[in-house]
Specification:
The protein is of the alpha/beta class and about 350 residues long. Helices cover about 40% and strands about 20% of the residues. Strands 1-2-9-6-5-3-4 form a 7-stranded mixed sheet, with helices on both faces. A two-stranded antiparallel sheet has the order 7-8. Strands 10-11 form a two-stranded antiparallel sheet. Helix 5 packs parallel to helix 8 and helix 9 crosses helix 10.
């Protein structure tokens, strides 16, 4: 088992990686919480694969287990689904020392996490991510929420889990598009890190180095979150590719999944970064060449996307905190007006 300690001052917790370890998740959670009940929130795709295994693990650890299976996909990360989860907690008599377990990808993690954050003003949360995107990114750092019709994650909170438990064997059942979805976030980490992560992505060898890759991505994010839990400064680096990526998702009606949209947004922002003073164009071009290996082209003109960034949750009234690259491995946040941002495209 590999572990990463996310050493926050008020809510420290571990990220545990154990290949084939899902059957042990209950015994890892048992010492961390006092309550007797667990609500496992999962979706209709993950439930047939892993719900029974997770349920038996928690039951062996002495928990009463209730399952809530929701519909899969970003289309269902809504207030309606969130309230269904809240209703299950209330109906089943969950108390403040009980636990919500998010078993699934980023949508389940965000929505179940927001339910945990808000039910009785906060109950225990455990993240058990089963997609590449969730294992390397969304399950770590405490961002939870649901979408509104005006944009992604506009209703949300920072709410840290008691534990993130990762079994990379769950990735063996990922559909190809979900795998590619996770690789989109992996490209972001490769550009931010510029070291071993860039090497793995550039060589297209993630599957050959899967546990190392997940461990390195999770460790990178943990180090950033430790220094800036509430995204006041440094953590904004993790939004690399996301400003335009979220606009791409919205423009597509969420038909383009998050990671793929981040990949397109990352390519666009790297192109824009080459126009900034001090940019290492040769290095940035290496990043663009890496992204090209993962295929696809953004189906929208940038002019169609720019109006949508004004509704992004990171936007201010006249400015946006955009993330650019000086070179691969060196990125920075720059506050820019919408007009200045538009001139780069």
């Amino acid at each position: 088992m590999k572990s990463i300690r996310l050493g926050l001052s008020q809510n420290p917790y571990d990220i545990l990686l154990e290949q084939g370890g899902l059957e042990r998740v209950g015994e890892e959670v048992r010492p961390l919480v006092h309550g007797k009940s667990v609500l496992i929130v999962t979706d209709e795709n993950v439930a047939p694969l892993y719900l029974d295994l997770a349920t038996k693990s928690f039951e062996r650890a002495g928990f009463r287990v209730v399952a809530k299976v929701v519909k899969a996909g970003e289309h269902h990360k809504t207030t309606e689904t969130y309230l269904d989860v809240i209703d299950a907690l209330g109906r089943e008599g969950f108390l403040r020392d009980d636990t919500v377990v998010a078993l699934g990808g980023g949508v389940v993690g965000d929505m179940a996490g927001f339910a945990a954050a808000t039910y009785m003003r906060g109950i225990n949360l455990v993240q058990v991510p089963t997609t590449l995107l969730a294992q390397i990114d969304s399950s770590i750092g405490g961002k939870v929420g649901v979408d509104l019709e005006y944009g992604k994650n506009l209703l949300g909170a920072f709410y840290q889990p008691k534990l993130v438990f990762v079994d990379v064997d769950t990735l063996s059942t990922l559909p190809e598009r979900e795998w590619q979805n996770g690789l989109g976030e992996g490209l972001k980490y490769a550009v931010l890190d510029g070291g071993r992560l860039f090497e793995i992505m550039d060589e297209k060898s993630v599957k050959d180095n899967l546990e190392e890759f997940v461990f390195l991505c999770a460790g990178y994010k943990a180090r950033i979150v430790e220094q800036d839990e509430k995204e006041s400064n440094l953590r904004r680096l993790l939004n690399l590719g996301h400003t335009l990526g979220h606009a791409i998702e919205k423009k597509s009606g969420f038909e383009i999944p998050h990671g793929e949209a981040v990949k397109f947004g990352l390519a666009l922002i790297l192109q824009a970064s080459k126009k900034l003073d001090g940019a290492d164009v040769a290095s940035i071009d290496k990043g663009l060449e890496m992204i090209e290996k993962y295929g696809g082209k953004c189906p929208f003109d940038t002019a169609e996307l720019l109006p949508l960034i004004k509704n992004d949750k990171k936007a201010e009234s006249t400015h946006i905190n955009a993330v650019f690259a000086k070179r691969i491995g060196e990125c920075f946040v720059q506050k820019t007006t919408f007009r200045e941002f538009e001139t780069l495209f």
